[in-house]
Amino acid sequence: MQRYFIRSEQFQDQTIILDGEEAHHLLRVMRARTGDRFIVSDGERLEALAELTRIDKDAAEACVVQWLAMDQEPIVKVSVAQSLPKGDKLEMVIQKGTELGACRFIPFISERTVVQYDERKEAKRLERWRKIAKEAAEQAHRNRVPQVEAPVSWKQLLEMHKRFDLALMCYEQVGGSAALRSLLQQLREDWNWRASAVAEANAAETETLDEAGRSAEGPSVLLIVGPEGGFSEREAEQAAEAGIHLVGLGKRILRTETAGLAGLACIMYEFNEMGGAL
């Protein structure tokens, strides 16, 4: 079923107003007719199954058939920091990373970044990246559209890592993925303990301990991926000194557009978002 992200003000009690790109796609691309149903979400707190009731030239009106639970988002909140790659590789990372469950993308400039950063051009690229994230979130039936940040410097990224429960940097010199697995397992165990504590405290107000546990804020992970030429030794040393864990993704060398997606899939698997270990 088609899904659209709309602005909160487009929800008017039991009525939903569609305009702009969403109305164009629904009416012109999908050729929807009165009585057709689709899903709408404001990406924050409102999501509903809607039925088309009125069609205008450039707008449409629908009624709420059923309010839906916003329970499609992963427990673990993963932000993918990707050094700016050449061409349209970042577009693929954002599209596929959104499908896998990333909550944010942070482009950054590292020592071996070969892309010439132009702030004026990047404004247009940022708009395109955010559109790709929105469309991918709709296709994947996400409840929220991942944030796509404006590019930051390596120094800024080193400071940002302090906001996360766990910061990982993909570094091919490390080798195997055993360290990654152990770090994720420890994070999962810590979160399980925290979720259990929240569940016990809130059990009287919820139907089950599991529901109360899932209300606990999930852990946050920063996954850092280098450019085509990888990270320099100096950057690896700076990251380690800052408290970022250097991890490998196996014995094979992965392309920059593959590494982040592989790491993201590993994290999601460990937190049972892809039939994993939790």
Your description of this structure?
- This protein is an alpha/beta fold and 278 residues long.
- It contains eight helices and 13 strands.
- The strands form two sheets. Strands 7, 8, 9, 10, 11, 12 and 13 form a seven-stranded parallel beta sheet that branches. Strands 1-4-5-6-3-2 form a six-stranded mixed beta sheet.
- Strand 7, helix 2 and strand 8 form a beta-alpha-beta unit.
- Helix 2 runs parallel beside helix 3 and helix 2 runs parallel beside helix 8.
- It is globular and about 60 Å long.
- It starts with a strand and ends in an 8-residue tail after the last helix.
- About 3% of the residues have low confidence.
Structural class: alpha/beta
Shape descriptor reads globular
The total of beta strands comes to 13
Per DSSP, the total helix count is 8
Largest sheet: 7 strands, parallel
Beta-strand content bin: 15-25%
Please mark out the parts with pLDDT under 50 across 5 or more consecutive residues, or reply none. 209-215
Termini gap? 29 Å
Secondary-structure element series? EEEHEEEEHEHEEHEHHEHEH
Which SSEs are present, and which pair or pack?
Elements: E1 3-5, E2 11-12, E3 15-18, H1 20-29, E4 37-41, E5 47-55, E6 60-67, E7 77-83, H2 89-100, E8 104-109, H3 119-139, E9 147-148, E10 152-153, H4 154-160, E11 166-170, H5 178-202, H6 209-214, E12 220-225, H7 233-242, E13 245-247, H8 256-270
Parallel strand pairs: 1-4, 7-8, 7-12, 8-9, 8-10, 11-12, 11-13
Antiparallel strand pairs: 2-3, 3-6, 4-5, 5-6
